[in-house]
Amino acid sequence: MAMKIRLARGGSKKRPFYRIVATDSRMPRDGRFIEKLGTYNPLLPKDSEERVKMNVERVQYWLGQGAQPTDRISRFLEAAGVVAKKERNNPQKAQPGKKAVERAEEKAAKAAEAAEAPAEEAAEA
């Protein structure tokens, strides 16, 4: 059985509230789970202690049993000091889009033309 530690959504529309659960990976997101390990309330301020609550002992137990945390849960565990911090790198995210690149090229071309025009006028005089 492939175990996951992941978020199960609760709360009403536009008011999310999540349970941190240990579940079989084949179960639906909000479906049956084996154990509730904590809660996550994204509406609270980031520095609030109530934002993420976890039973760290039980999380460590499930990690020892081979459960794989999702990316968001692994970030919570890194912040709590339970798991070693992973190096993440997404170089595509930092690159501008196609239209932004085109605008930058047009702006550079206009700047080059503007720089050449005064130099030509000075040469003629």
What is the CATH homologous superfamily assignment of the largest domain? Ribosomal protein S16
Beta-strand percentage range: 15-25%
Strand order of the largest sheet: 4-3-2-1-5
Reported CATH architecture of the largest domain: 2-Layer Sandwich
By CATH, the topology of the largest domain is S16 Ribosomal Protein, Chain: A
Query: What characterizes the major β-sheet?
Result: 5 strands, mixed
Enumerate how many helices there are, as a single number. 4
Low-confidence stretches: none
The rounded Rg comes to 26 Å
What can you tell me about this protein's structure?
- With 125 residues, this protein is an alpha+beta fold.
- The model has no long low-confidence stretch (mean pLDDT 88).
- The protein has two domains: 3-80, Ribosomal protein S16 (S16 Ribosomal Protein, Chain: A, 2-Layer Sandwich); 91-124.
- The protein is built from four helices and five strands; from the N terminus they run ββββαβααα.
- Strand 1 and strand 2 (15-24) form a beta hairpin.
List the helices and strands and how they pair.
Elements: E1 3-12, E2 15-24, E3 35-40, E4 52-54, H1 56-64, E5 68-69, H2 71-80, H3 91-94, H4 98-124
Parallel strand pairs: 1-5
Antiparallel strand pairs: 1-2, 2-3, 3-4
